[in-house]
Amino acid sequence: MNILEKITSAIVDGDNVKVIDYVEQAIKENVSAQDILNKGLILGMNQIGKLWNDGDIFIPEVLVAARAMNSGSEIIESSLLKSGVEPIATAIIGTVKGDLHDIGKNIVGMMLKGKGFHVIDLGVDVTKEQYLDAVKSNNASFVVCSSLITTTMNYMKDVIEYFKEQGFRERVIIACGGAPVTQEFADAIGADVYTADAVKLSEVFLDIVEVR
After folding, report:
1. Where does a domain end: 55, 82, 109?
2. What is the largest CA-CA distance in the chain?
3. Domain of residue 36, CATH code
4. Into how many domains does the chain fold?
């Protein structure tokens, strides 16, 4: 098993320590940061996505794998920037105004990073103005609005309407998600994307990028 295969295997196992060790070893062996990302880290997260879709793993396993992937990507981030490797797209994520839950949103961010996206995480209690400012500042193509409680999910509609008012609605793909959110709700407020889980969302976003 070569070093990239070891990285992939460690991601699937959710072994944060081994991922860090193997990434650092790969760097010492002069493996390019891009190969570490694409042939090690992202390949591992793709396998996690398949296991999730097949029902072979659950949220805890996805979370530890995503955290391991995040640790590995942080090590090579500066090298990627120096080598001019560009992310496939930029996504703005956040939990909407009035809601302080962040676990689901965090998993979304990790899964998107695992597909090669640059992720700007605005945190929790995010206003419509913060979403739009982040889109403008980072030339983002995707926005993810998360909510875990029914009293805040309607703010997603406010975000979408605000983007319309400011003339930015057609420039971005807006996704919504969270425990109380349904496809019917997403359709009613005019969201572009709804998925029941973070793995599927990252796959949908990647498909959109590849079509464009």
Report:
1. 82
2. 54
3. 1.10.1240.10
4. 2
* Helices and strands, number each (H, E), in the chain: 11, 5
Domain that holds residue 98: 90-211
Q: Which of 127, 137, 134, 136 is nearest to 92 (CA)?
A: 134
- Are residues 99 and 200 located together in one domain of the fold? yes
Ranges of residues in the chain whose predicted pLDDT is under 70 = 81-85
According to DSSP, residue 39 is labeled: I
Q: How far apart are CA 143 and CA 40, in angstroms?
A: 27
pLDDT tens string 82-121? 666 678 999 999 999 999 998 889 889 988 988 889 999 9
Q: Give pLDDT, residue 59.
A: 81
Rounded Cα gap, residues 22 and 185, in angstroms: 44
Rg of the Cα atoms in the chain: 17
Beta-carbon contacts of residue 208 (< 8 Å; ≥ 6 apart): 142, 173, 193
Is the pTM value of this prediction over 0.85? no
Nearest to 158 by CA among 197, 126, 123, 193: 126
Do residues 53 and 98 both lie within one domain? Answer: no
The domain boundary residue, chosen from 65, 82, 99: 82
Q: In degrees, to the nearest 5, what angle opens at C-alpha 201 toward C-alphas 35 and 11?
A: 40
Tell me the CATH number at 130. Answer: 3.40.50.280
Pick from 77, 82, 72: nearest CA to 41: 72
Q: Are 102 and 149 found together in one domain?
A: yes
